[in-house]
From TrEMBL:
The protein's name: DUF2269 family protein
Domain of life from the UniProt record: Bacteria
Lineage summary: Bacteria, Bacillati, Bacillota, Bacilli, Bacillales
Keywords: Membrane, Transmembrane, Transmembrane helix
Residues annotated as transmembrane: 6-30, 50-71, 77-100, 121-140
Keyword Transmembrane helix: yes
Amino acid sequence: MFYFYGAIVFVHVVSAVLSIGPLFLLMPIIKRLQNVETPIEHAFLSIIKVIIRIVMHAGHVLVVSGVMLLLTGPWPWYTSWIIATVVVLLLSGFFLSTGFTKVLKKSHLPDSNKVEILAKLNQTSWIYIGLMLIMLWLMVQKPVLW
């Protein structure tokens, strides 16, 4: 049983890294998107979509492995840091599904403002990274909040 729990912890940590790490690749891509021509812009947008898809699927593995850890681990589900993590998780899931999707859909519209879209994409990325870092802090530190 100990090896099973350890394997789930490993999967959970790797999925946490994959759910936040690729987002840092967005910053230089967004910066380069400001001065490129349309064909190159489409290539960069495709890379952004792949990054978002990796983050999304890693998030799914993160949630499943987190539930498995909760079911097999020593902490009850009503522990304050677990409840806070779930709340931040729901916020980040909603934010990821709506924030990035809306911004990327606007980029294909002919009358879209490229500078505004890139600024929003950059802001969305930093907010999501912040939410993920809060979750990471909650999972590592396990603070007693109430």
